[in-house]
């Protein structure tokens, strides 16, 4: 994060707050949210679009990367709209004071009930993922009045990222295949209460090069041209989705938000000029690149175990008090991360270890072959770039309560999500009926 510093005694601070003190006060694991990093990254998108795109533009924060009430409030304060992928996310946004008109609803399996709820929440636009959904939307619009729709296309653009998080291929589960575009248009044209707003695509996540985005914009504009010729429709909005990657460890490429925005904006301007299309509203939907670097995860070292047989360069497991329950990315995508001690942070990293999680699962190793200083039990480690797709994908596996989130800003720390409790974990259980069901 932008505000990370090492103070005179060698201790790591975020926004002036010593991370060791956060760990002491709230326990570990704990996630620390740097409001300044979030704000600066949001501003890079917002101001970059204002500088490079002559038309109207909006930044929609992709809530799936990380959401709580404070973050929805911050997003609103920094001029962002919300990309919600479920009614649950939209509810958080509404609860935080985000007007429904600033929320777009995504998702590939929205039920009719959810579509009705979206209307009740005042959600601005529904991004239709498939033809069945469009038919459902037409029915919901007939019941209750006009609905704004964007079409999510499967642009058939390959992005260089982990196959689990690539979404732009023609065979993807997401989006309307290009050859079905006119079928989709026919459904909209047949229902006067559906209002065509524009086109969307999302080619994947943790993408670090820009050419696939240019290709995606070209596909969207070609489709806009087709809809104009065949139906006389104006595509008022286009969104090439989110997906810009971040650096997780030293040596990782660190894509620049400004360069990304400039490239996408130029491609839209140039493409519209060539095709004689009016400039649409340009929507960017970043999640990871806004919130990823804004959070640091803190774990305590619980135990260490020398490796009994060779496994990479490491000579030991260092067991931490968190792991795949709060961050499943290493187990799920082979994601890499780094860690450094919060006290005496400048100690030379002389050891190579596996940082193992506490969950009952062999794949629960947060980082393999990482360089760390000599560590003792009780030492607190900080994992940077831990904001995106960690807590939002967290589980209570092994009945381990999910960690709290502490916001830091200008030397102050404020708890924005408390730690889950054992009581929370049992709150939905009813137990056996009384009198009990017949047993053996
Ligand atoms: N827009 C749409 C329609 C999306 O599907 C996504 C992410 C985004 C925007 C935001 O993408 P971002 O800027 O955060 O890359 N759990 C995976 C990532 C899944 C991304 C899903 N869609 C991971 O941990 O890498």
TrEMBL record:
UniProt-recorded Gene Ontology molecular function terms: diaminopimelate decarboxylase activity; pyridoxal phosphate binding
EC number: 4.1.1.20
Quaternary structure annotation from Swiss-Prot or TrEMBL: Homodimer.
Tagged with keyword Cytoplasm: no
The protein's name: Diaminopimelate decarboxylase
Cofactor dependency: pyridoxal 5'-phosphate
GO annotation, biological process: lysine biosynthetic process via diaminopimelate
Function (record text): Specifically catalyzes the decarboxylation of meso-diaminopimelate (meso-DAP) to L-lysine.
Native source organism of the sequence: Nonomuraea deserti
Amino-acid biosynthesis listed as a keyword: yes
Residues annotated for substrate binding in this entry: 288, 329, 333, 361, 389
Name of the top EC class for this enzyme: lyase
Pfam (any one): Orn_Arg_deC_N
Residues carrying N6-(pyridoxal phosphate)lysine: 64
Domain Orn/DAP/Arg decarboxylase 2 N-terminal, chain residue ranges per copy: 41-291
Catalytic reaction annotation: meso-2,6-diaminopimelate + H(+) = L-lysine + CO2
Gene3D superfamilies cross-referenced by the UniProt entry: Alanine racemase, Lyase, Ornithine Decarboxylase, Chain A, domain 1
Residues noted as binding pyridoxal 5'-phosphate in the record, renumbered to the chain: 243, 285-288, 389
UniProt keyword terms in alphabetical order: Amino-acid biosynthesis, Decarboxylase, Lyase, Lysine biosynthesis, Pyridoxal phosphate
Family: Belongs to the Orn/Lys/Arg decarboxylase class-II family. LysA subfamily.
Protein's pathway: Amino-acid biosynthesis; L-lysine biosynthesis via DAP pathway; L-lysine from DL-2,6-diaminopimelate: step 1/1
Active-site residue numbers: 360
